[in-house]
Amino acid sequence: MKDTTTSAVIEARGLGLTFETNDGPVRALTDVDLSIGKGEFVSFIGPSGCGKTTFLRCVAALEHPTTGTLSVNGMSADAARQARAYGYVFQAAGLYPWRTIAGNIRLPLEIMGFSRADQEERIERVLSLVDLEGFGKKYPWQLSGGMQQRASIARALAFDADILLMDEPFGALDEIVRDRLNEELLKLWARTEKTIGFVTHSIPEAVYLSTRIVVMSPRPGRITDVIESTLPRERPLDIRDTPEFIAIAHRVREGLRAGHGDEV
To answer: Where are the alpha helices (DSSP H) in the chain?
Structure first.
Protein backbone atom coordinates (compact mmCIF):
# COMPACT_ATOMS: atom_id res chain seq x y z
CA MET A 1 0.00 0.00 0.00
CA LYS A 2 1.20 3.47 -0.82
CA ASP A 3 2.46 5.32 2.25
CA THR A 4 0.64 8.65 2.36
CA THR A 5 1.39 9.53 5.97
CA THR A 6 4.53 11.55 5.24
CA SER A 7 3.13 13.39 2.23
CA ALA A 8 -0.52 13.74 3.22
CA VAL A 9 -2.36 16.60 1.57
CA ILE A 10 -5.53 15.78 3.52
CA GLU A 11 -5.30 14.03 6.88
CA ALA A 12 -8.14 13.16 9.25
CA ARG A 13 -7.66 11.49 12.62
CA GLY A 14 -10.59 10.42 14.81
CA LEU A 15 -12.81 12.82 12.87
CA GLY A 16 -16.41 13.06 14.00
CA LEU A 17 -19.28 15.45 13.38
CA THR A 18 -22.55 15.63 15.29
CA PHE A 19 -25.33 17.97 14.20
CA GLU A 20 -27.65 19.37 16.84
CA THR A 21 -31.26 19.27 15.61
CA ASN A 22 -34.70 19.86 17.12
CA ASP A 23 -35.08 16.08 17.34
CA GLY A 24 -31.78 15.65 19.13
CA PRO A 25 -28.17 15.10 18.08
CA VAL A 26 -27.44 13.42 14.73
CA ARG A 27 -24.04 11.79 14.29
CA ALA A 28 -23.02 12.31 10.67
CA LEU A 29 -19.41 11.09 10.96
CA THR A 30 -17.62 9.04 13.57
CA ASP A 31 -13.99 8.06 14.08
CA VAL A 32 -12.81 8.74 10.51
CA ASP A 33 -9.09 8.11 9.94
CA LEU A 34 -7.82 8.86 6.45
CA SER A 35 -4.69 10.20 4.73
CA ILE A 36 -4.78 11.35 1.10
CA GLY A 37 -1.43 11.83 -0.59
CA LYS A 38 -0.45 14.40 -3.19
CA GLY A 39 -1.71 13.53 -6.66
CA GLU A 40 -4.10 10.79 -5.54
CA PHE A 41 -7.61 10.36 -6.95
CA VAL A 42 -9.73 9.17 -4.02
CA SER A 43 -13.42 8.36 -4.41
CA PHE A 44 -15.91 8.13 -1.57
CA ILE A 45 -18.82 5.75 -1.98
CA GLY A 46 -21.63 4.66 0.32
CA PRO A 47 -25.39 4.86 0.84
CA SER A 48 -27.22 8.19 0.97
CA GLY A 49 -26.66 9.96 4.26
CA CYS A 50 -23.43 8.11 5.08
CA GLY A 51 -21.33 11.27 5.38
CA LYS A 52 -19.49 11.28 2.04
CA THR A 53 -20.43 14.86 1.24
CA THR A 54 -20.13 15.87 4.89
CA PHE A 55 -16.49 14.75 4.91
CA LEU A 56 -15.78 16.76 1.75
CA ARG A 57 -17.51 19.77 3.30
CA CYS A 58 -15.31 19.42 6.40
CA VAL A 59 -12.21 19.48 4.18
CA ALA A 60 -13.60 22.64 2.55
CA ALA A 61 -14.37 24.20 5.97
CA LEU A 62 -18.07 24.36 5.06
CA GLU A 63 -18.74 22.16 8.09
CA HIS A 64 -16.69 21.94 11.27
CA PRO A 65 -15.91 18.62 13.00
CA THR A 66 -16.92 18.22 16.63
CA THR A 67 -14.21 15.66 17.43
CA GLY A 68 -10.81 14.67 16.06
CA THR A 69 -8.38 16.57 13.85
CA LEU A 70 -8.24 17.53 10.19
CA SER A 71 -5.43 19.13 8.23
CA VAL A 72 -5.37 20.31 4.62
CA ASN A 73 -1.98 21.10 3.09
CA GLY A 74 -0.52 21.02 6.58
CA MET A 75 -2.90 23.66 7.96
CA SER A 76 -6.39 23.79 9.41
CA ALA A 77 -9.33 23.51 7.02
CA ASP A 78 -10.25 27.15 7.76
CA ALA A 79 -6.71 28.31 6.97
CA ALA A 80 -6.66 26.20 3.80
CA ARG A 81 -9.91 27.81 2.70
CA GLN A 82 -8.45 31.28 3.20
CA ALA A 83 -5.34 30.17 1.29
CA ARG A 84 -7.53 29.03 -1.66
CA ALA A 85 -6.04 25.53 -1.33
CA TYR A 86 -8.86 23.81 -3.21
CA GLY A 87 -11.48 24.15 -5.89
CA TYR A 88 -14.97 22.74 -5.23
CA VAL A 89 -17.32 21.29 -7.86
CA PHE A 90 -20.91 20.68 -6.76
CA GLN A 91 -23.49 18.26 -8.17
CA ALA A 92 -25.26 21.13 -9.90
CA ALA A 93 -23.03 23.27 -12.12
CA GLY A 94 -24.10 26.41 -10.27
CA LEU A 95 -23.32 28.80 -13.09
CA TYR A 96 -24.76 32.30 -12.97
CA PRO A 97 -27.16 32.57 -15.92
CA TRP A 98 -26.53 36.30 -16.44
CA ARG A 99 -22.79 35.73 -16.86
CA THR A 100 -21.11 34.19 -19.89
CA ILE A 101 -19.07 31.04 -19.40
CA ALA A 102 -15.92 33.16 -19.34
CA GLY A 103 -17.63 35.52 -16.89
CA ASN A 104 -18.47 32.62 -14.56
CA ILE A 105 -14.88 31.40 -14.63
CA ARG A 106 -13.67 34.96 -14.08
CA LEU A 107 -15.73 35.50 -10.90
CA PRO A 108 -13.40 33.81 -8.35
CA LEU A 109 -10.41 35.41 -10.08
CA GLU A 110 -12.00 38.85 -9.66
CA ILE A 111 -12.68 38.13 -5.99
CA MET A 112 -9.07 37.04 -5.47
CA GLY A 113 -7.71 40.17 -7.14
CA PHE A 114 -5.98 38.66 -10.16
CA SER A 115 -5.02 41.21 -12.81
CA ARG A 116 -7.16 41.45 -15.94
CA ALA A 117 -4.37 40.03 -18.10
CA ASP A 118 -3.90 37.11 -15.70
CA GLN A 119 -7.66 36.48 -15.68
CA GLU A 120 -7.75 36.28 -19.46
CA GLU A 121 -4.79 33.89 -19.60
CA ARG A 122 -6.28 31.61 -16.95
CA ILE A 123 -9.73 31.58 -18.57
CA GLU A 124 -8.25 30.64 -21.92
CA ARG A 125 -6.11 27.91 -20.34
CA VAL A 126 -8.88 26.21 -18.34
CA LEU A 127 -11.36 26.37 -21.22
CA SER A 128 -8.78 24.48 -23.24
CA LEU A 129 -8.25 21.98 -20.42
CA VAL A 130 -11.96 21.05 -20.39
CA ASP A 131 -12.35 21.19 -24.20
CA LEU A 132 -14.55 24.29 -24.23
CA GLU A 133 -12.43 26.50 -26.47
CA GLY A 134 -14.65 28.96 -28.32
CA PHE A 135 -17.49 28.76 -25.78
CA GLY A 136 -16.35 31.56 -23.47
CA LYS A 137 -18.90 34.05 -24.85
CA LYS A 138 -21.81 31.61 -24.58
CA TYR A 139 -24.29 31.71 -21.69
CA PRO A 140 -24.99 28.63 -19.53
CA TRP A 141 -28.43 28.08 -21.06
CA GLN A 142 -26.78 27.73 -24.47
CA LEU A 143 -24.73 24.73 -23.32
CA SER A 144 -25.70 21.11 -22.65
CA GLY A 145 -25.69 19.76 -19.09
CA GLY A 146 -22.36 18.05 -19.66
CA MET A 147 -20.79 21.21 -21.05
CA GLN A 148 -22.10 23.22 -18.11
CA GLN A 149 -20.47 20.77 -15.72
CA ARG A 150 -17.18 21.06 -17.61
CA ALA A 151 -17.46 24.84 -17.26
CA SER A 152 -17.97 24.37 -13.52
CA ILE A 153 -14.80 22.26 -13.38
CA ALA A 154 -12.97 24.96 -15.34
CA ARG A 155 -14.06 27.57 -12.79
CA ALA A 156 -12.72 25.37 -9.97
CA LEU A 157 -9.39 24.98 -11.80
CA ALA A 158 -8.98 28.65 -12.72
CA PHE A 159 -7.03 29.73 -9.63
CA ASP A 160 -4.80 26.64 -9.84
CA ALA A 161 -5.46 25.11 -6.42
CA ASP A 162 -3.63 21.86 -5.68
CA ILE A 163 -6.80 20.09 -4.51
CA LEU A 164 -10.04 19.51 -6.41
CA LEU A 165 -13.10 18.46 -4.36
CA MET A 166 -15.95 17.04 -6.45
CA ASP A 167 -19.36 16.21 -4.97
CA GLU A 168 -21.20 13.91 -7.41
CA PRO A 169 -20.48 16.23 -10.34
CA PHE A 170 -21.88 13.83 -12.95
CA GLY A 171 -24.73 12.32 -10.94
CA ALA A 172 -27.50 14.10 -12.84
CA LEU A 173 -26.17 13.31 -16.33
CA ASP A 174 -27.17 10.45 -18.61
CA GLU A 175 -24.87 7.44 -18.87
CA ILE A 176 -23.39 8.29 -22.27
CA VAL A 177 -22.44 11.83 -21.23
CA ARG A 178 -21.21 10.56 -17.86
CA ASP A 179 -18.89 8.03 -19.54
CA ARG A 180 -17.40 10.73 -21.74
CA LEU A 181 -16.83 13.09 -18.82
CA ASN A 182 -15.26 10.29 -16.78
CA GLU A 183 -12.75 9.80 -19.61
CA GLU A 184 -12.11 13.53 -19.83
CA LEU A 185 -11.69 13.86 -16.07
CA LEU A 186 -9.00 11.15 -16.05
CA LYS A 187 -7.14 12.97 -18.83
CA LEU A 188 -7.49 16.25 -16.94
CA TRP A 189 -6.15 14.64 -13.77
CA ALA A 190 -3.17 13.23 -15.68
CA ARG A 191 -2.36 16.65 -17.16
CA THR A 192 -2.77 18.69 -13.98
CA GLU A 193 -1.64 16.17 -11.32
CA LYS A 194 -4.21 17.59 -8.90
CA THR A 195 -5.20 15.76 -5.73
CA ILE A 196 -8.87 14.84 -6.22
CA GLY A 197 -11.54 13.89 -3.68
CA PHE A 198 -14.61 12.60 -5.50
CA VAL A 199 -18.03 11.64 -4.10
CA THR A 200 -20.15 9.20 -6.09
CA HIS A 201 -22.97 6.66 -5.73
CA SER A 202 -21.75 4.72 -8.77
CA ILE A 203 -19.54 1.67 -8.23
CA PRO A 204 -18.29 1.59 -11.87
CA GLU A 205 -17.48 5.30 -11.73
CA ALA A 206 -15.56 4.94 -8.47
CA VAL A 207 -13.54 1.98 -9.76
CA TYR A 208 -12.85 3.55 -13.15
CA LEU A 209 -11.60 6.88 -11.81
CA SER A 210 -9.77 6.18 -8.59
CA THR A 211 -6.38 5.29 -7.22
CA ARG A 212 -8.20 4.46 -3.97
CA ILE A 213 -11.85 3.91 -3.09
CA VAL A 214 -13.13 4.76 0.39
CA VAL A 215 -16.21 2.71 1.31
CA MET A 216 -18.42 4.26 3.98
CA SER A 217 -21.14 2.85 6.22
CA PRO A 218 -24.64 4.22 6.85
CA ARG A 219 -24.93 6.98 9.45
CA PRO A 220 -23.03 7.53 11.59
CA GLY A 221 -20.61 7.53 8.67
CA ARG A 222 -17.40 5.63 9.19
CA ILE A 223 -14.87 4.07 6.83
CA THR A 224 -15.41 0.33 6.42
CA ASP A 225 -12.84 -0.32 3.69
CA VAL A 226 -10.16 1.50 1.70
CA ILE A 227 -9.44 -0.24 -1.59
CA GLU A 228 -6.22 0.34 -3.49
CA SER A 229 -6.74 0.20 -7.25
CA THR A 230 -4.40 -2.05 -9.21
CA LEU A 231 -5.60 -0.69 -12.56
CA PRO A 232 -3.11 1.15 -14.81
CA ARG A 233 -3.23 4.95 -14.90
CA GLU A 234 -4.27 4.86 -18.57
CA ARG A 235 -7.81 3.52 -18.56
CA PRO A 236 -9.92 3.17 -21.70
CA LEU A 237 -13.62 2.67 -20.99
CA ASP A 238 -13.47 -0.97 -22.04
CA ILE A 239 -11.22 -1.68 -19.06
CA ARG A 240 -14.54 -2.05 -17.21
CA ASP A 241 -14.97 -5.45 -18.91
CA THR A 242 -11.68 -6.85 -17.58
CA PRO A 243 -11.49 -9.39 -14.72
CA GLU A 244 -9.32 -6.98 -12.69
CA PHE A 245 -11.94 -4.20 -12.88
CA ILE A 246 -14.77 -6.60 -12.06
CA ALA A 247 -12.86 -7.95 -9.05
CA ILE A 248 -12.38 -4.44 -7.60
CA ALA A 249 -16.04 -3.59 -8.23
CA HIS A 250 -17.04 -6.83 -6.47
CA ARG A 251 -14.98 -5.87 -3.41
CA VAL A 252 -16.62 -2.43 -3.32
CA ARG A 253 -20.07 -3.99 -3.56
CA GLU A 254 -19.25 -6.50 -0.82
CA GLY A 255 -18.03 -3.65 1.37
CA LEU A 256 -21.27 -1.78 0.85
CA ARG A 257 -23.31 -4.88 1.62
CA ALA A 258 -21.32 -5.57 4.77
CA GLY A 259 -22.03 -2.07 6.02
CA HIS A 260 -25.65 -1.88 4.90
CA GLY A 261 -27.19 -5.31 5.22
CA ASP A 262 -29.06 -6.49 2.11
CA GLU A 263 -30.18 -3.08 0.85
CA VAL A 264 -27.40 -2.55 -1.75
So the answer is: 52-59, 77-82, 101-112, 116-129, 145-157, 175-192, 203-209, 243-260
